[in-house]
Amino acid sequence: MSDSREKKKIVFSTGAGVSAESGLSTFRDAGGLWEQYPVMQVASAEGFAADPALVHKFYNARRRDLVSKEPNEAHRLIADLQRDFDVRVITQNVDDLHERAGSREVLHLHGELMKLRDVADPGYIETLSAPDLESSPDTLSRDGKGRHMRPHIVFFGEAVPNIEPAMELVEQADVFVVIGTSLNVYPAAGLLAYVRSGVPIYYIDPSPADVKGLRDVTVIRKKATEGMAELAAILRNNQ
Ligand code: OAD
To answer: Does pTM surpass 0.85?
Structure first.
C-alpha cells in the first residue's frame, strides 16, 4: 500500500472530445453543437438575459441526451489510473461521465449539466435526478425559499470561478494530459502555461490544435479511447 502523497500526480484537462465516443456532440467539429445552435443565444450571459426560456430549453435537451449516454473506455481508463496514481481531472465538460466512470476528483470549469443554481446566489446549487430533468424560468428551488433557478453552467461572458483551483492543480502536476479539446476557449486553454518545466505533457486528439512552440508536448493523434490505452501503458511503464 502506498500513501497518496507518494504517488505521482497526473492532472488531466479534458474537453468535449473525451465524451465524443459516448455519443455526445463536440462543439466545433463538423456537425458540432455550435453549428446547430447559435452559441451567443443559448450559452452566453446576454443570451440568457434576452431569452431565458430558450436557454433552459437548450440545456433540457442536453440533459435528456446525457442521461441516455454512458462513460466510454477513455473515462474508465482515467478512473482506473487512480489505483496507481494521484489522479485529478479538470474538465471543460458539463457532463458527468468522468464521475460515472468512477473518477473521484473532478473539477468542472464550465459548470455541471445535472445541476441548477440560484440565479441570484451562485453558491446555492441543487442536483437534478431522473425523471425531473427539466427546468424553465419558472423553476423554483426545492428548499421552499422561492429562489429562481438557472442551469449551473458558466455562460460566455461570465467569470470561471474554478480556474484558480485548476491553475494550482496544474502547477502541482508530475504529468499533465490534455484530451479532446480544440484549445479555443480561455481561460481553460491557458492552463498549459502553468505546467512546471520538465513535466511531461501529452495531448490526445485525432485532430489536435497547433501546440508547436507553446510547450514540449507529445501529441497522440488518436481518438480518446485508443489514445488513453496507449498513454496508460506509457504511464505504467514510467511509474
Ligand atoms: P471543441 O468542440 O471545441 O473541440 C473538440 C475537440 O475534440 C477537437 O479538438 C476534436 O478534434 C476533438 N475530438 C473529436 N473527437 C474526438 C475523440 N473521439 N477523441 C478525442 N478527441 C476528439 O470542444 P472543447 O474544446 O471542449 O463551453 O470546447 C470548449 C468549450 O467550448 C466547451 O466547454 C463549451 C464550448 O463552447 C461552454 O459551453 C461554456
So the answer is: yes
